[in-house]
Amino acid sequence: MSQSSNPIPAASIAVFRDGKVLLALRARPRLWSLPGGRIEPGETAEQAALRELREEVGIEAEVAGPAGEREAVWRDKRGTVVARFHIRAFAARWRAGEPRISPEAVEVRWVDPDKVGEFKTTEGLAEIVEAARQLIG
Q1: Are the C-beta atoms of 82 and 3 separated by less than 8 Å?
Q2: Model's pTM, two decimal places?
C-alpha cells in the first residue's frame, strides 16, 4: 500500500535535559530520531508529540515551541515508497520520567546536540535539533 501521494501527518519532539537531547533508535526504520509518531484524529500536532513521548519512552515534557517540519519517506527493499510522513517537530524541556525502551524505540539516549551528526539518523535531524536547541536557549 503506497502512501506516496498522501503524506501521513506526524509529530516529533526534541526534549532537552541538562543540555542534552533525547534520541531514540527506531525499530523501523533502524535510524536514530526523535520520539514521535502519527497524529491521531482530534489531536493537535503538539498533543500528538507529547503523547508519543509518553508512550514511546516514558518522558513528560513542556513544549517550548515549534522546531521545524520535515518530510520522511519509507521505502521497501526494492525502493518502492510504502509511506510518506509530514512531520511537525517541537522543542521541549524535560519535566519528569526516565527514558525507557519500547517496541517503537529499541534504544534511547541523552546526546550532546553537537554529536547528533555522529549517529545514523533520519534525514534533517541535526537541523531540527539545532533549531530546537535555539528555542530552549
Answers
A1: yes
A2: 0.91
